[in-house]
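Onboarding guide, step 5: your first structure request.
Type a short instruction followed by the sequence, for example:

Predict the 3D structure of this protein.
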Amino acid sequence: MTDDHSAPPERQDGDSPMTDLEQCILFNRDLLHIHEVERQRIAKDLHDVVGQALLTVKLELNMMFLQHPDIADRQGIAALREDLTGAMHKAIRSVRDMTYALRPPDLDQLGLPLALSALCTDYTERCGFETDYLSAGLDRIHLGFEVETNLYRLAQEALRNVEKHAMATRVMVRLVASHPNVILHVADNGRGFEVARMLAASKSEKGLGLWGMRQRAKLLGGEVRVNSTPGTGTSMVVKIPYGGGGNCNDVAHTSR
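The system replies with C-alpha cells like these:
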C-alpha cells in the first residue's frame, strides 16, 4: 500500500545532460503520473460525494415508506417504491463501477497484492472463469505509487483481454518480488492468438492494448513479454524494476 504521490524522480544536477529520448521518456512518465493522480481524485469525489449522496437518498426513501405505511398501501405506490429503489440501487452500482474503473479504493487502502486478489475475484464472479492468484515477496519493499498503479493497470488490461478474447476457463495470476524486479505473470488456457498480428492491431485501439501495455512498462524501465499461438493459450510476463530488497508476504486464493 502506498500514499506516495510524488512525481517521478528527476536526474540530479551532477549527472550528464539527458538525451532527447530520455527527456521524452521522463515527460511521458510525468504525464502518466499526473493522469493517474487525477483519476484518483475523481474516483474519491465520486465515492465520497456522489455515492454517499445516492445512498442517503435511498435510505431516506425507504425510511419514508416505513414511517408512513398508509402511503405505501395506496394503489400503485408499492410499484413506484420498487421502481425508485431499483433505480437508486442501479445508480449506486454505476457510481461504484466508475470509481473502481478510475481508481479502485482497494489499491490505496490495502495495497497492490490484496487489490489484485480482489480484482481476480471480481473477474471470476462476473465472467465465470477460475482464477488462481498468488503474491509473494512484497511485504518489505516499497513499490511506490507509479509502480503499484501501473502493475495494477497491466493486470487489469490482461484480465480484460481474457474476458473479451480468450474464451478461457482458467487464469493464473502471479505477483512476485525478485530483486531487482517485481514480476507480474498472467496466463490463461484460452484460444491464443498470433502475437505479431495482435501487436500491430493494438496500436489503433482506444484502450491499452498489447502495444500500449509494452509502452507503459517501458516508461518505468520494464518490459512486457507475451507468448501465444492459436489454440495454446496465452502467457504474459511483466518485469518492472523496483530498486529495493524484500522478503515474503504471500497472498493466495483460487476463485471458482
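Each response can be followed by summary notes, for example: The helical segments are 20-67, 69-72, 77-102, 105-109, 112-127, 144-166, 195-202, 209-219.
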